[in-house]
Every structure is written in structure tokens, then in C-alpha cells.
């Protein structure tokens, strides 16, 4: 699974340095704050827009700029890792077989996650792939060092957006390692994420949602989090019992306190029991003014340039909580008749292939597009170099959607998270240069455009992906010679779709194609004349997807049936290590398990 490059060897270590990511992101002198009353907050639901032109760059001030906010580089990498883990879990949980096949889990990731992934692809990290072990900062230390020890209030137009950023980044640390306990009042959570507050599910042990501020303060006071080395206590109730992690402090997000509660919170900060983040003025300490872009300054200290905080609007925060698994993804909705185009189908209609007579009428030129493996375009066998990266991506996108796509859909896929109106010209330029290069080499127009909808002309161009889907359709409907038909599916798959490319829109298409190949192996294994031949086919399927739990169950059971018990145990151990190396912990549960000789062993 191609994880983001900087995380390949250091996914766990990076989590520690990414929690609040304020000390690692010093900012230039603050911009003049917007004229708002002291202690005021942004209107809930107001987008946290930053720089005037969001499309000018996606990498700003050491972080990733989106239409929904700004993320420090380390936080963006954790988001990309969380998205990669979503697809790994889906691959692990898929159960091969044609009967009752359900591909509902092939829905793309939310738009914000896709935008973060695309930004990291376009702006790869300049630092080495591996981060030295000594560079890994303990989670609690990173968090505390970024916040005033006496707590902090957040005011100004970016206050709520910064609090959402804190909420998401602290929860992200729980993806790969024990995280800082996070306590938030129910009212504060509703203020931050609106109706999504009620939809949060599978609450991680380090997230506690308390009914009132009094309950939150009482919880922190009674929790032995200030004493390191304590065992984690099993929560008895989700909403009123803290998960004790042994970390030296918790993060507490609350509404503006007053009176005795404010004094008790100040005491918790002084004792090192909690970092308090207040949505509003903090009477016991500093109140940072946060602008819409996340820049901070202290009104009591003119000229002081505070850290730039991660800022997220409500939609972006909800998207990222969905990717982390804390919110159920939205169910598919019916097409909106008011939209100018329909959503792209996951299983496209395969165009009719060009015949010899048709090619002869076009001068006999043959334009081939290879999509399975490294993308390559050739004219009469000679490779045609595509210089513009966006043009190559657009070409592969059209090959993956042979029925065509509206320009708006292409812009949303190729440049997610950025305003469509500012990118349409970029798409037109890329397609124009692509059409011109192909026309110069072949004399043919291979991209049709009707009513701002683009498609590859099947009369002039052919792709291996189209041939693959044709082969799958033939195998699924074959009445005779079914083994030969399914073997043809396997033979037509040399490598995954656009191998080596990390375009976010590829994931559903890549996984759907992979599943067709896995199904072909399983069907042939079921019809194999001998157990040994069936085993070889299932082992080949594992090479197609080494993360699938069901395939490993089948192979281990086949090995056990052949008396090769030690080999089966070794396969199980190898599989478990592979999942752990990818960031799938034993604590996770998605219903998949490897079953060997009647015993069930978790595969996470």
C-alpha cells in the first residue's frame, strides 16, 4: 500500500510530533486582526478562509492550505496516513466471491481528505524519508510545549476553527500510538462540529465527552493522569469516566468558565494535570486572538507573534473525523437534478472497440494507452511523451471513465479542495496541449468534447483497462469454458491501475479492478482439480493483495488440509507483522479474522 513517503518508516514516530504542531510552525509577524470585539468568536459554520486567493498555492507557511482551512505539514501527513489506512482496512475486510458481492465500501474519501492527499502529492516533503528516532517527540510533551502552561483562551474570527484543528489533531495521534486524553464538554463539541457531535461513534478511549463543564473539571480532578506509569483503566461509561493513559496531562476544551470553575481549572493547569483550551476569554491566563488563517497574537503583548494554529471549518473537521472512523460516512444520495452533470458511475460502460475497417478509415494509425501499470501512450508502437503531469492524469482519468466526464467533475477529481472556477482554465490548457501533441504525432483527435463533456474516442484510441473490463464481463457471463474466461482476467492484469501514482481519485477504481482479479483467482481455485493447484491459485491471489484477510484464511486452511501446519503458522505470523507495519493495530476490529484449524486469531 503506497503510504505517504515521509511516513513509510516512521508512521508511529510522526504522530508524536504532530499533535498540536505549533512549536514546529513559527510564523511571521501577525497580520492586523479583523475588527472584532474582544472575546468574540466566529459565527458557527463560517468557513475559516485564510489568504485571499486560496488557489494561489496549496503549500503555505510550512503547511497545507485548503478551502476549509490550513493544516501544518505534520498534521496533513497524519490525515493522509489515516486515509491510506481506510483503504487498507477495506482491502483487508473484502470477502472475495461473485455471489452477493457488495462494493458499497468503494466510496471515495471525503473531499477534505482527498484535497490533503492531493496537496502532498503535488508538494512532496523535502526532508529525508526516514526521521531519526531522536526526532520523535512524546505526544504529551509536544502538546504542552505548544500551549501556555496556564491555559489559553481562543478569541477572534479563527477561534472556533483553531479549536476544531486542536480537536482533530489530538484525535489523529490515536491512530498509531497512545494519545493525550482529550476531554470536551458536550456544548463545546456541538459548537465546534454542529450536528456531527451526535454522530460521533466508536469514541476512542482518549476522547471523553462530558455533559457539563462541572463534570469535566471533576473528571480531570479525579483522574490520576498527572502520575506517569499508571495502568489504563477500563471505562465503565463512555460519557462520564476518563480513560487513564498515564500521560502527564490531558487537553480540556471547554466553554468560557467563570468564578469557582475558572479557579479550579487554573489549579489543574498549575498542577500539570491538564492543558485548558477555552472557547472565549480565559480569565486565569492568556487569551490568544486567532485570525481566520490561524495566526495568533496576544492583545496584551503588542508585537508578539504567536504560533500559527491548524484551522478547520465545520465541513473540513467533519470530513476528517469521518476518515478517522469517528463518524459514519454519509449514505449515497440520489443525483441532484439541478446539477449540470451526473456523478460518475463506479463501473463504467465499456465502449465498443474499434474494428480494423474503422482504423483503416482513419489511416490505419493505432493509438494505445496503457493504464495497468505505469501509464504510457504510444502511437504505432512509438512512445509519446506527455510532458504536463496534469495532462497525463486527465488522460488516465478519461480512460477510467470511458463514458466521459464533465469538466467540473474532472476539476474536482484532479484538483480536489480548490475552487473550481479558478482551475477550469488549467484543465482546458492541459487538455489542449494533450490533444495537440497527439494530433501532431498521429493526425487524429482522440478526445471528444460535447457540451463541456470530455471522453476518449474509442474509434481512435484503445486502452488495456477497457480490454480488461471487457474480459471481466465475458467471464461473468460465460456459459462454457469458464475456467479459460477467468484465466483471461488474470492474464489481463499485469499490475495495478496507474502503478506508482498517488492520485486520490484512483483508489476506488484501483480497488475495484483488484477485486475482479481476486475473484478470478478464487473462482478458479474453487474449480481446481487438485488441492495443490487450488493452493497455488490462492497464493497467487495473496500476491495481488497481501492485505486481504479472507485470502489468508483460505490459504492457511488449504495448507493445514495438506498437512503443512508449520507453513500455515508462519504465513499467519508474516501476515500479522505486515498489518502491524502498515499501522493496523491489534486493538482494531472490523469483523475480519484469520481462521486456522478451527481457531480464530485476530488479524489486526
Counting DSSP E segments of at least 2 residues, the number of strands comes to: 20
Radius of gyration: 27 Å
User: Could you tell me the strand content as a percent range?
Assistant: 5-15%
Oligomer: single chain
| Side-by-side strand order of the widest sheet | 6-5-7-8-4-9-10
Q: Tell me the structural class.
A: alpha/beta
Summarize the biggest pleated sheet: 7 strands, mixed
* Number of self-contained structural domains: 3
Inertia-based shape: flat
Give the count of helical stretches: 20
- What distance separates the N and C termini? 16 Å
Mean pLDDT: 77
Helical content band = 25-40%
Residue windows where pLDDT falls under 50 for at least 5 positions: 1-57, 126-145, 225-248, 332-347, 597-604
Layout: helices, strands, pairs:
Layout: H1 11-17, E1 59-60, E2 63-66, E3 69-72, H2 73-93, H3 111-122, H4 139-146, E4 152-155, H5 159-172, E5 182-185, H6 186-193, H7 196-199, E6 207-210, H8 213-222, E7 250-255, H9 259-270, E8 274-279, E9 286-290, E10 296-297, E11 311-312, H10 314-323, H11 356-361, E12 367-370, E13 376-379, E14 382-384, H12 389-400, E15 405-406, H13 407-414, H14 424-442, E16 447-450, E17 453-456, E18 461-463, H15 464-477, H16 482-491, H17 506-526, H18 531-544, H19 549-561, H20 565-582, E19 593-596, E20 599-602
Parallel strand pairs: 4-8, 4-9, 5-6, 5-7, 7-8, 12-18
Antiparallel strand pairs: 1-2, 2-3, 3-11, 9-10, 12-13, 13-14, 15-17, 16-17, 19-20
Helix pairs in contact: 1-2, 2-3, 5-10, 8-9, 12-14, 15-16, 16-17, 17-18, 18-19, 19-20
